[in-house]
Amino acid sequence: MPKDTITPADEQKIKAAIQEAERNTSGEIRVHIESSCDGDVLDRATEVFAALHMHQTKLRNGVLFYVALEDHQFAVLGDAGINAIVPDHFWEDITAEVIQHFKQQDYARGLAEGIKMAGQQLKAHFPYDATGDLNELSDDISFGD
Predict the structure, then answer these.
(1) Within the chain, which residues score under 50 in pLDDT?
(2) Which of 81, 118, 140, 145 could in theory staple to 60 by disulfide, Cβ–Cβ 3.0 to 4.6 A?
(3) Are 39 and 64 in contact (CB under 8 A)?
(4) CA quadruple 127, 118, 65, 50: dihedral positive or negative?
């Protein structure tokens, strides 16, 4: 079902935003999209975070953008390394930006803008290291049911 809403062009726009953000940071960004979310959205995002092995990055600086399209649920979740240093309102600011675009059904733009915001903070706190930075996690969007 999410593949019916997110077009191949949308996927490319989102993936390009991830790659652009990661070009300037050692941080890792993933996007997971599924139809529905049973229960609390943060609990589900935490499950997906673990299933995607995002907690296994060297600096614990992974960020997950989780979307449940049919249920109109969204969460952005950072690992311990980034949560320890970003401003208190950081995740709320990203959420507000993303949801503003989601309300107009512009999911790709909302995610791309949120990814850009996350990338700026990741760049400030986890700059790209040309000598040893690896792309530890896939830039592809993962899809659930």
Answers:
(1) none
(2) 81
(3) no
(4) positive
CA atoms within 13 A on the CB side of 49: 24
Distance of CA 57 to the CA centre of its chain: 15
β-strand partners of 77: 64
Write down the pLDDT at residue 23: 87
Question: CA–CA separation, 50 vs 144, rounded Å?
Answer: 14
- Please give the full DSSP string across 49-60, using - where no structure is assigned: HHHTTGGGSTTS
SS3 category, 68: strand
Task: Supply the DSSP symbol for 54.
Answer: G
Q: For residue range 108-141, what is the model confidence (pLDDT) as tens digits?
A: 999 999 999 999 988 888 887 765 556 666 767 8
Is residue 110 within 8 Å of residue 97, measured between CB atoms? Answer: yes
Tokens coding 138 = 């896939």
Longest dimension (CA), the chain: 43
